[in-house]
Amino acid sequence: MAKSAPNGKRTLTELAEDSGVPARTIRYYIARGVMPPPLVGGRGASYAEEHLERLERIQKLQAQGLTLAQIAWKLGEHPLERQLVEPTAWWNYPVAEDVVVMVRSEMRPWRLKRVRSLISQMAAQLRSAEKEEGGDAR
Amino acid sequence: MPVETETGRFVAVGTESGKPIQLAMQQLWLQGKILPVGARLMVRHVFRSAEAKPLEVVYGFALPRDAALRQFVITGEGFRVRSRLKPTEEAVKEYEAGIQEGHLATLARQYGDGLVNLTVGNIRPGETVVVLLEVLAGVQVLDNGLRFRFPFTLAPSYHIRARTAEVEPGVGEMELPEDEFGDLILPGYQRDAVELHEVGFSLSVRMAQAIAEVSSPSHSVRVKMDGEQRSRVMLAADRDVPDRDLVLDVATRESRAVVLAARAQDIRRRFAAVVPSHAFGETPAAPRQVVFVLDRSGSMQGVPIEQAKRALEACLGALAEDDRFSIIAFDDKVERFDSEMCQGDQHQRARARDFLAAITARGGTELAQAITAAVKLLSQAAGDILILTDGQVFGTERILDEARAGGVRLHCLGIGSASQDRFLTLLARETGGVCRFLTPRERVDLPAVDLFASIGRPLAASLRARVEGTACGQIAPPPASAVFAGMPLVLFGDAAEGEQGRLVIEWENPQPGKLEFSLDPADCGMAETLRLLQGSRLITDLDAQYTVIPGERAMERRDQKRIADRLQTLSEAYGLASRCMSLVAVIERAGDQPGELPKTTVVPVGMPQNVSFAAYFSSSAVSGIMAMPWAPQRSVLLPVSRQGPEAIGSTLEHDGASLFGRASEVLRQTVQCDRTDSVRDPAGVTAPEDLLLDLARKLEPDGGMPGRDDFARFVHSLVAVLAFLIEGHTATAGAFRTHVQRLMRFLETSAFPALAAKDAQAVNEVLAWIKKGPKPSWQTSELLVWNEQEAWERIRQTMGSGRAV
């Protein structure tokens, strides 16, 4: 989508035209911290090639199902976070004393509900198996 | 919860996040008039900036049914500016240019699904700006009044490509795909709405008939009557929170046809007509084919799904032997009760009950798939589909497309505190069906039975309407093709002034009929309002056909272009916004700072009452923590425990000592539950209605109640029909009218030699008395504890003495 400006600098209107992302959305991205602010403020506010690249990256991440909050975290530029391997969040479901099922927390709620239902069934089956084993042992 | 800051001021803090809350929108106040065929509203938005730099505020909301934006007026210190209606692309450019120049700019833009973004940019630090937005909206017109619904929040809804996350404790975020929804920004969703902007309302009601009552199932209201036909209704408290729709019911004392007409500036007579359904005759008895479609998505969890299931069971009880039915339950998958339509016999109904018992709420809302499956089940047969849903789904234009293509009549029973009323109204109307939308505080089962009683059996079909006696009278939009019990026919149109115009309505089925009304009643003085309400209805209908589907073919794109052009023409003709025309205003002020980038913020709304936050928002990766989601979710809904159906059923079949066995015990338990539960069933379950539902559910295919022998069946049926009459349901009125009709037919046509020999004259007297429809003086609970002999003797004796009447 990128159509580079002669000096690589763009106004907000040009950035919106080149990226296909509406100006209001770009302002919202800046307010949400997923986009850096313009290079220069005021009447001559300008945006660089990096802004255009950032918009492309945001669109790709959105296509992967990430929300702006998740994108803001993923694109966070704190030095410490850069050094670390990206953490992932998981739900931890102990279904028996010695069995734990882990489910990725980013899962869509509708799918998560189904998975939780299956885990509940698994927990019930394990409990029933344990009872039977206990009965056999007696 | 307010806390004192270092500066000594009190500010609101979030109960879950603990962070101070700065409200960009302080207040949303609804004013205006509710009329017999629509509402003309003024919505007051108060924005205030607490930022140190210019602020751009985005407020997202849903349009009510048949609604369109007309204009807004933006006011502040030293300015008052009215919006202009422009093609959307032009309006956006004007808004953006205004922002770039540092001017105060406002844009009201409509998107798919009737969603709107109201954006106010460059509000200065510490400044307060008020936007007064004029909205024309439809109402649900009923035979004896109307229901008005206005959304104070916007429900999160299912979309296969929606992105959702809980961004901080108790705050959800939802984003929709840009290729389908453009730059629409949805609000943030707060589990607790207490700290959000205040909402309220003060509305005038102006009816054409005497008002019996104005009430609300959603809010506490104060009502002040101003003559017989006018009243004023206000929020009883000082303010409320944005977590549910405002729902107002206006009941009139009479139910008769009304024609509102007035002379417009263009020397034409504008009119709107409401013809109550009873003017078209009585519901005919005819076999029907019905597919019940039950929404079992996650957002239905709690009381709605349980009541919907009970309602379906009661509907099954109203099926006759020559009726055919099936059930489809759906979330993001479709589950069929059977691969084909089934006869309404006892075996199939028992199977259906087992099927329903296993249904729980879960998953998404793939309504289009469910409709397709239901249409396929009906195959070539003429039939109806009854959908029970909260309608919480985005991308509704595609669903409407598929529903239209199905060619089957859809009837909708909506359940929810946040409005999807617009969508379900369109879904029913576009397919020739009817729609009712209820709040979770009302019971769902009785209206379902009521709706079911009328579907499949229109009072009038193949209906046409025209204006006669004047050269160029017209009716638009075209009238509904059928009229169903309880739902009046509503028409808009215009005619040349000064001629004796008549509105003529004709229909072919089930019996040909004709009605005529004069178009020259006294001028109601509402010509412009009638014109605008007609326009908003026409725009809504056309907007519902305007789909933006990624990757669509060239031919479809051409079709859509044609719709967009027509939409623009309609918008211009009526002066109303649509998806192709937006409202914009730019205010130049001294001291504007060109090029300064405003901070964009989005107004949050409350999670709709009774919708589980967890149904849409799981914890996000942002927190990066391990969590244990096993902790029980806080729930505001606890179903009232009931033992009614099973207890009554078993007793009817096996207990000869008392007619309805444990019915009185069930009654006592239910009432006790209602009184003692700390968390009350918001549907407001009442015992007599529960008992009636249980009776309805038990109806046999021949229309009689079950029993050991003919005598027992006869007496059980007699008592059941009396119970319905006591609660106000007759063969022609009330939610259980179909059940009463079937019971009456059973009592009239069944042969009971033993009984007839014993007291044939008494049987005839009882039947004749019931046919007259007087309300017996017994209590339902009194009836249901009699044994068979006692019941028969008391009813027979009472007939003689006339005590019961």
What does this molecule look like?
Chain A is mainly α. Chain A folds into two domains: 72 residues, Multidrug-efflux Transporter Regulator, Chain: A, Domain 2 (Orthogonal Bundle), CATH 1.10.1660.10; 48 residues. In chain A, 54% of the residues lie in helices and 9% in strands. Chain A contains six helices and two strands. In chain A, strands 1-2 form a two-stranded antiparallel ribbon. The relative contact order of chain A is 0.09. About 6% of the residues of chain A have low confidence. Chain B has 805 residues and is α+β, with helices and mostly antiparallel strands. Among the domains of chain B are: 166 residues, Rossmann fold, CATH 3.40.50.410; 158 residues, no CATH class. In chain B, the strands form eight sheets. In chain B, strands 7-6-11-4-3-17-20-19 form an eight-stranded mixed beta sheet. In chain B, strands 24, 25, 26, 27, 28, 29 and 30 form a seven-stranded mixed beta sheet that branches. A six-stranded mixed beta sheet of chain B has the order 8-36-9-10-5-37. In chain B, β28, α6 and β29 form a beta-alpha-beta unit. Chain B is globular. At the A-B interface, α1, α2, α4, β1 and α6 of A face α1, β14, β15 and β37 of B.
